[in-house]
Amino acid sequence: RELTLKYILPVAHIEKFFEALKEGKLLATKCRRCGARCFPPQADCPDCGSSDVEWFEVNGAGRLLTYTVINVKPESYSDYPDYVVGVARLAEGFNVLAWVECDDPKKLRRGMPVKIKARKRKEGFFSYHIVPVEE
Fold first, then answer.
1. Residue 92: which pLDDT band, with cuts at 50, 70 and 90?
2. Residue 91: CB partners within 8 Å, gap ≥ 6?
3. pTM for this structure?
4. Which of 47, 116, 122, 127 is the most exposed place for a label (fewest CB within 10 A)?
5. Over 90: is that where the pLDDT of 78 sits?
6. What is the rounded average pLDDT of the residues 120-130?
7. Whole-angstrom Cα distance, residue 65 to residue 27?
8. CA gap 96, 100 in Å, rounded
9. Per residue, what are the HEC states of the chain?
């Protein structure tokens, strides 16, 4: 028997992040109290709980740490062809989990240079993807 769940996630405190994605920019937050930095941004510091955070732009350059090809998909992605999900370590010190844009996963290798870029998904919302960079 199918059970459908619907979640409402409040994003008003980080709406600035989604607006920046529409402009092709990546934003993160930094706690003014303890200095913890977060990407994706957080309205409250996960380390000290402070709500006193400042926004800053992330360059997005980094290296691919790992990746996997998804060929057994959840039902909500069943209309997609096989796709790649990876983790990149950015120069700013963040690890980012995202879809990897590539036409052939055999071209990917650990440690290769990548860039995190904002993209509009076919579902109509904006997100960010890992994009390999030519050396």
1. very high
2. 59, 61, 62
3. 0.85
4. 122
5. no
6. 90
7. 21
8. 11
9. CCCCCCCCCCCHHHHHHHHHHHCCCCEEEEECCCCCEECCCCCCCCCCCCCCEEEEECCCEEEEEEEEEECCCCHHHCCCCCEEEEEEEECCCCEEEEEECCCCHHHCCCCCEEEEEEEECCCCCEEEEEEECCC
